[in-house]
Design brief:
Strand order of the largest sheet: 2-1-3-4
Strand content: 5-15%
Helix content: 40-55%
CATH architecture: 3-Layer(aba) Sandwich
CATH topology: Rossmann fold
Number of helices: 6
Low-confidence stretches: 1-12, 22-41
Distance between the termini: 45 Å
Mean pLDDT: 80
Order of helices and strands: HHEHEHEHEH
Number of strands: 4
Structural class: alpha/beta
Length: about 200
């Protein structure tokens, strides 16, 4: 007995190509990513997730779209604590879990803006508490350069923020998300880098 796919198999073939490209891209990015252990994970799959997060909120009445990259060890757990504790924060923040804030490549940030994000939040462990020793310090230096690039492109640097949020700081995550959402509402829609699809 053999199992053969029935119907259109082009989706399966495309999925296989995406997986192979993601595996190859992840290996290359891991070697070039820097940031110690934090640079060894991820790849093309993360880049696709950035695109999905940027498109997550439907068009219609405008609400800010904030893409958040959260460290899996601290900040993502802090966001989870905020949710399980039923703390109120805007649904405009779409979180992507990354191994470490040091893994966030400026290309991911620019891609999020291109795909329609109005702001990007990078959240990591407090300095000195990074599970990869210095990934968050690496992220801080990298994001300072990314803010300069945003300014050069004519965007407000306030659209990119970095915050240190531990696993026990669910209330801080809720506060940061609310404040960032209000700040983005005041700035308005991102019109500079948005791709027309």
């Amino acid at each position: 007995m053999s199992l053969e796919p029935v119907g259109d198999t082009s989706v399966l073939a495309q999925g296989r190509k995406d997986l192979e490209a993601g595996a190859a891209g992840g290996a290359q990015e891991g070697r070039a990513g820097g940031g110690g252990e934090a640079g060894k994970a991820g790849g093309a799959g993360e880049a696709r997730e950035v695109g999905k997060a940027g498109e997550a909120v439907e068009e219609g009445e405008w609400a800010p779209k904030i893409v958040g990259f959260a460290c899996r060890w601290c900040s993502y757990a802090g966001a989870d604590l905020a949710g399980t504790s039923r703390m109120s924060y805007p649904a405009t923040v779409r979180l992507l879990r990354v191994p470490c804030s040091g893994r966030v490549n400026p290309a991911f940030i620019m891609r999020a803006f291109q795909r329609g994000a109005d702001a990007v939040l990078v959240a990591g462990c407090h300095p000195g508490d990074c599970h990869y020793t210095s990934g968050n310090l690496f992220a801080r230096r990298r994001l300072a350069l990314a803010k300069g690039l945003l300014e050069y492109l004519g965007m407000e640097p306030e659209r990119l923020q970095i915050h240190w949020i531990s696993a026990a700081e669910g209330q801080k995550f809720a506060r940061v998300a609310s404040e960032m959402s209000k700040a983005v509402e005041a700035l308005g829609r991102n019109r500079k880098m948005r791709e027309e699809i």
